[in-house]
Amino acid sequence: MGNAVKLSPTSDSQKALISRLEKEAGTSINLCYQCGKCTAGCPAAFAMDYPPRQVIRLLQLGLVEEALNTESVWICASCETCSSRCPRGVDIAALMDAVRREALLQNRVTDKKVAAFNKAFLNGVKWFGRTYEAGLLIQYNTATGQYLKDAELGLPMFLKGKVGILPEKIKGRDAIKKIFERAQEKGGE
Ligand code: SF4
Ligand code: SF4
What we know:
Elements (H helix, E strand, L loop, with lengths): L11 H14 L11 H5 L10 H9 L3 H5 L3 H4 L5 H5 L6 H14 L6 H17 L4 H11 L7 H9 L13 H13 L4
Helix pairs in contact: 1-7, 8-9, 8-11
The chain binds iron/sulfur cluster (2 copies).
The site of one iron/sulfur cluster has 14 residues, from helix 2 and helix 3.
């Protein structure tokens, strides 16, 4: 359940930001009639401070700062269940993604561990074209200061062939590199 929010007039810059987020997500918040189907199907809603329906409502009310400060955008798993269930065709998953990117740009990360994991995961895909579990763990543990976290699991997992010491590189790495370059041109990290 979200905290109480204070309503105040939406400034032109806040309106412009909401329009930009809609444009980036390729969707419109005004289509939403608050039926709650998105929240009912969201596998992560139980852990969110504002479930997806409420994130949309914050934006409808012009409360973009509150939307950017939610923990929900860091908990969202981008599974797209909400978007596929919406009877109004609102692409909520894309909107959550747009809000998350903006929060990252504005350095409003409410969950530093999730952001560190997100970055480590994307670095692996950028460098090798696919996730590299050992590198992901090392990057994540270093970024969050948990240097020995899960260290006791590393050797048994390696011996059972569950994680490789060296990364596997895929063939289409150039195409992946171009995707990251395009994302950077659009303001991504
Ligand atoms: S399912 Fe669609 S219309 Fe219903 S609350 Fe969610 S975004 Fe709004
Ligand atoms: S994309 Fe995010 S908000 Fe939508 S159902 Fe999945 S976890 Fe929930």
